[in-house]
Design a protein that fits this description.
By secondary structure, the chain is mainly beta. The protein contains no helices and 7 strands. Strands 1, 2, 3, 4, 5, 6 and 7 form a 7-stranded antiparallel beta sheet that branches. The chain is globular, with a radius of gyration of 14 Å.
Length: 113
């Protein structure tokens, strides 16, 4: 077994942005992080993604609907969206959150709008 001992640091100012406004943070072969920063109130259409997502709310409020069940997200809350689950977000108040996806969302077009 080959062990990867690579150390990565990504400076926030150099972080690339995705088409949906997300800022890509550190990423490895099996997991990646992204930042949704000061998202203004709006609704995002329901989608199904082939990756699992966990997230944590930094500030603001949102509602997450997964398979017709809605939960309110507030600062300090965290969540899980299982791979393949139909889900949608409604940003209620300027929203900042960090998410991790596995496998990495940005690989092979998995993160397309």
């Amino acid at each position: 077994m080959t062990i990867d001992t690579t150390v990565k640091k990504l400076t926030s100012e150099a972080s690339p942005r995705g088409a949906m406004g997300q800022k890509y943070l550190a990423a490895g072969k099996r997991v990646s992080m992204r930042l949704w920063e000061s998202e203004t109130p709006h609704a995002k259409d329901p989608v199904r993604r082939e990756y699992e997502t966990v997230g944590s709310v930094v500030s603001g409020r949102a509602e997450l609907t997964i398979e017709d069940q809605t939960v309110k997200l507030e600062p300090g809350d965290s969540w899980l969206v299982p791979a393949g689950a139909r889900h949608a977000y409604r940003i209620v108040e300027a929203f900042t959150a960090v998410e991790a996806t596995s496998p990495p969302a940005e690989v092979h077009g998995r993160d397309e709008p």
